[in-house]
Amino acid sequence: MKNSSATLREYTQNCLHQMAQCADEPLSTVLTEEDLLNFQQRGTGRVRNYPAEKTLSLFLRQVASEEKSCRKVLIADAADQTALNNMRLTTHNSAYCKARQRLDEHDVKALFQLSGQRFDEASPERWLWHNRRVVLVDGSTLSMPDTSTNQPEYPQPSTQKKRSAFRF
């Protein structure tokens, strides 16, 4: 893949459009092109098929889809790229899965905290209910290996029976 600034800007624009942040949208400043380019620049300087913003875009698409598999998101992306007459990447998921692991958790978290803060600031007053913000919680859960590396950051809940988590 060519690592040109035009290609990176295209990935960035695709990511923004995927998050419904077109220039004519009222909440178009939740994340900016500059935010995503800065996010990309924190990664390694090595040329990869999946730069940070492309990986982030695919990951967001994967999380939002009914079918959560890596392969399905790559097939959907390949179909989009074919429709746009763009070069499409392979639908084999090993490179994408490795790229996803390279996303720095703290950088992704910071990016979404920034977007949440901007979203809150950009929300019109008419969205308030009795002059108060309404916060919704969806009750999502996630599952991950109960490794010694993960335990300090993500301990078992106190309500969970000891040694009942799966181990790798």
UniProtKB/TrEMBL annotation:
Top-rank taxon: Bacteria
Biased composition (Polar residues): 142-159
Segments of this protein annotated with the region Disordered: 142-168
Descriptive protein name: Transposase
Organism: Parendozoicomonas callyspongiae
